[in-house]
Amino acid sequence: MSLSLYDFTTRYYLVQNMQLVLIAHNIRSAENVGSLFRTADALGVQKIILAGYTPSIEHPKVKKTALGAESAVQFEQQVDIFKVLENLKREGYHIIGLEIDSRAIPLNQFKPSFQKIALLLGNEVDGIPAHLRDICDALIFIPMLGVKESLNVTIATAITSYQLLNKL
């Protein structure tokens, strides 16, 4: 008996136990936003919240990079990041910041015991502001072997999202 792509995809999503929301806060690059939609679609992310001055899906470069994924992934646009975080916490989400910080846990050692995660992503240059890191339930980072300390926000999000969705 052979599995069709549809069967495989359906089974893959059925075995996922986690609900993952991405919070793209003050992302500058419209291309990065489009790429986040592609990643979210590929991995079965529940929703993307575009917060602060992150470009909307109406931006031509978002649409060009997303290649239609912006129509397949649930999203919302919010300016007030504090309201976003407050609402997610009220809904039972644990806010996890993806950031290099002395308090951050290496991704390969992070063992979530909860099923609702909101992954907070920061600006490409400045990252997640300190006052928002303090609100997070946990901070995680991707250990790096090279001389650079970080990856592009979309690459880091893809690696982290895949790891989180496949840990439970």
Task: Outline the fold blueprint.
Layout: H1 5-15, E1 19-25, H2 30-43, E2 47-51, H3 60-66, H4 69-72, E3 74-78, H5 81-90, E4 94-98, E5 105-106, E6 116-121, H6 130-133, E7 138-141, H7 153-165
Parallel strand pairs: 1-2, 1-6, 2-3, 4-6, 4-7, 5-7
Helix pairs in contact: 2-3, 2-7
Task: Write up what this structure looks like.
The protein is an alpha/beta fold. 38% of the residues lie in helices and 20% in strands. The protein has a seven-stranded parallel beta sheet, sandwiched between helices. The radius of gyration is 16 Å and the shape is globular. The model is unreliable at 11-15 (pLDDT under 50).
Quick synopsis:
This protein has 168 residues and is of the alpha/beta class. It contains seven helices and seven strands. The chain has a seven-stranded parallel sheet, sandwiched between helices.
